[in-house]
Design goal:
This protein has a single domain, classed as Up-down Bundle (Ferritin), CATH 1.20.1260. Helix content is about 75%, strand content about 0%. The chain is built from five helices and no strands. Helix 4 runs antiparallel to helix 5. The longest helix has about 30 residues. The radius of gyration is 16 Å and the shape is elongated. InterPro entries: DPS_DNA-bd, DPS_DNA-bd_CS, Ferritin-like, Ferritin-like_SF, Ferritin_DPS_dom. One of its GO terms (molecular function) is DNA binding. Keywords: DNA-binding. It holds the Pfam family Ferritin.
């Protein structure tokens, strides 16, 4: 059955490309945060271990929400490490940095994801896709808030 939600196919595909980048950033940030949860050490261990767990759980749910929005637009969502690696702007961390560097990297990651969200909102607005703009606005606010909370640990 053909999709008829009031957004042209070309516009849905454009928005889905932006959402795919947001999905890749979200998933990459999820993986990094989960790794840091497992591997954090130092005097801040207990608080960071718990904070990272809360954050990676939120990111896991967010990835599903973003992927399902892509499917709502009748476009297939990326779902492999290689696809995410090509789409994401978040740098992979193969090592285990000390806790302050973990926090720095997560601040940077959330700021990158916030910037990706802003670009996605612009594309959604241009396409008249209020559903995507609304969902991504929530993601933007969450990334900005998480970056602020993490940044506060470093002051």
């Amino acid at each position: 059955m053909a999709i008829s939600i009031g957004i042209a196919k070309k516009d849905r595909e454009t928005v889905a490309k932006h959402l795919s980048k947001l999905l890749a950033d979200t998933y990459s940030l999820y993986l990094k945060t989960h790794s840091f949860h497992w591997n954090v050490t130092g005097p801040q261990f207990t608080s960071l271990h718990a904070m990272f767990e809360t954050q990676y759980n939120e990111l896991w749910l967010a990835a599903d929400e973003v992927a399902e929005r892509i499917r709502t637009l009748d476009v297939f969502a990326p779902g492999s490490y290689s696809q995410f690696g090509k789409l994401s702007s978040i740098k992979e961390e193969a090592g285990v940095p000390e806790w302050k560097e973990m926090v720095n990297q997560l601040v940077e990651g959330h700021e990158i994801a916030a910037a990706t969200a802003r670009e996605t909102i612009k594309a959604a607005d241009a396409a008249g896709d209020e559903g995507t703009a609304d969902m991504v606005t929530g993601r933007l606010k969450e990334h900005e808030k998480t970056a602020w909370m993490l940044r506060s640990l470093l002051r």
